[in-house]
Amino acid sequence: MARMHARSTTIHGDRESVDRGIAYVRDEVMPQMRAMEGCVGLSMLADRASGHCIVTTSWADESALRSSEAGVRALAERTVQTLGGRPELEEWEIAAMHRVHEPHPAAACRVTWLRSDPGSVDRAVDAVRLSLMPKLEDLPGFCGVSVMVRRADGLTVAAVSYDTAEDLEEAAEGAREFREQFAPTMGIEALGTADFEVAIAHLRVPETN
Fold it and tell me: Residue 152: exposed, middle, or buried by beta-carbon count in 10 A (0-12, 13-18, 19+)?
């Protein structure tokens, strides 16, 4: 079975343009993306206080990801014209996906970036899948978690969504323990973390665990 892939566009834009950027991605970008061959869906995370936004598209396989490059880059450039800043496009393999339900309006998401030896990326994924996911199930407001990897660089990114910002805040201590205590014992370095509003949630990736 072909592995699903994703492309993320990170924009550090103008915080005053975030609402306009969300509307543009929802009304203009998403319909064009979903019309592309092999596109499974789109999500957008936004930090209104900083203007930091991440738009992620999911693709049925690597071939669909590759064939979409030109079209996605053009849309990303137009999105930046709305949000300001400069786009950083990154490509990922979707390693794990588990959701209780789709995030609701006003949902929140914590994104954590991890680095390990390139040959140990699967260990990082297993650490999230086996050690973090079971604990998340018991947390109030937990919606779902996605894990993406870039094996050649030893990078893993985990995004955990919650019903509200309050639920996300209540889960902060467990997330900190994972980053600072558990991950290092597995040879995994936590590069950083950031909290976002889930502005658009239509990634449509099937369960993988």
Answer: exposed
Residue listed under structure tokens 């323990």: 177
Distance CA 93, CA 96 (A): 9
What DSSP character marks residue 206?
A: P
Distance of CA 43 to the CA centre of its chain: 8
Q: How many CA atoms lie within 13 A of 124 on its CB side?
A: 28
DSSP state of 106: T
- 80 token code pair: 């930046």
Residue type for position 6 = A
Structure-token pair, residue 16:
């005053």
* pTM of the complete model: 0.91
The CA distance from 96 to 182, in Å, is 19
CA distances from 19 to 6, 59, 106, 161, 180 (A): 24, 26, 14, 20, 34
Q: Could you read off the pLDDT of 6-65 as tens digits, one per residue? A: 999 999 999 999 999 999 999 999 999 989 999 999 999 999 999 999 999 999 999 999
